[in-house]
Amino acid sequence: MVLAAVFLLLVTVTLWVWVRTRAAEGYGAGRFHHSLEEADSDFVSVTEESPVAQFFHAEDIPVSEMGSGGETSDDEIVYHSRKNDRMEIALSFDDGPHPRLTPIILDILEEYGIKATFFMVGENVGYYPAAARAVVEAGHEIGNHTFSHRKFGRMTEHEMLDEIASCEDAIASVSENPVHFIRPPEGQMSDAMRRVVGTLHYRIILWDVDTRDWAHTPPAEISRHILDTVQAGDIILMHDFIGHDSPTPEALRMVIPELLARGYRFVTVGELVDGD
C-alpha cells in the first residue's frame, strides 16, 4: 500500500511538472493568458450567424466533396521557403494579436520599414481587436492560425473547417483584406488537413527558420541562430503572443540591423511565395 501511494504521488508530481512546463512554453494548459483588464471594450464575438461562418460552415460541405481541389501537389500549396536570388526573406509571427507585445513588435518593424505576416488566432482577435486592426493599418499581411489553436491531429475534418472558418470570420471583423494563407498550429500536417485546406483554396505556410522564441530562448541565441542559418527565400517563425516575458522584441532589435547589413530584404509571405 505504501509503495502504491508513493508511486501515485510520483506520477501526480510528474504530470503537474509537465503541464506547468508546457504552459510556460506557451502550449497546452494556459496556452493564452487573457485578463479582463487587457481585453478590448469592443470584444468581437464570432457566431454561427456571421457571414463567413455561414459560408464555410462544416455541415454544409459533405466529407465526400472535401479536397475537390486536393489534386494540387504539396509543392504548390505547402511552403517552408521560396528560394530566390533577390535576398528576400519573410518574417512571420504566430498566435497574436497581443495587447502589449504586438504594438511593440509593430513599432520595431516600422522603425526599419519592414512588412511582415501575422498568423492570427481568431480567439485572440476577438479579445484584442484594436491590436489586430493596428497590424492591418500598418500594412502587414494577415494569415489564418485557426480560431482556438487546437491541434488539427485531434480533429475531424468538419471540426477543422469550423476552426478555420471561425478564425477567418474573426479576421474579417477587423480587416477587409482576403486571407490566402494558413499556418496549422505547431505546423501539424495530415492528409485530412490537406484535403480541408484544398477545399478552401488556402496555401499552407510553414517555415525554414524556427527561432523557438516561444520557449523563451535568450534573445542573443535567437539572433545567432537566425544569422547562422538563414538563406534567401526563408520564412522565419516568431511569435507575438507568448505566455510571459517575451524575448522576441529584443531579438528583433538585435537581428534586423545585421540582416539588413548583409543585404537581405524583408517581404511578406505573400510577396515571397508569389515572387517570380
Characterize the structure shown.
- With 276 residues, this protein is an alpha/beta fold.
- It is 42% helix and 12% strand.
- It has eleven helices and nine strands.
- The strands form two sheets. Strands 2, 3, 4, 7, 8 and 9 form a six-stranded parallel sheet that branches.
- Helix 4 packs parallel to helix 10 and helix 9 runs parallel beside helix 10.
- The radius of gyration is 20 Å and the shape is globular.
What series of H and E elements makes up the topology? HHHEEHEHHEHEHEEHEHEH
Let me know the largest β-sheet: 6 strands, parallel
Tell me, rounded to a whole number, the average pLDDT.
Answer: 81
Helix content: 40-55%
Number of strands: 9
Give the distance, in angstroms, between the N- and C-terminal Cα atoms.
Answer: 70 Å
Q: What is the 3D shape?
A: globular
Radius of gyration: 20 Å
Strand content: 5-15%
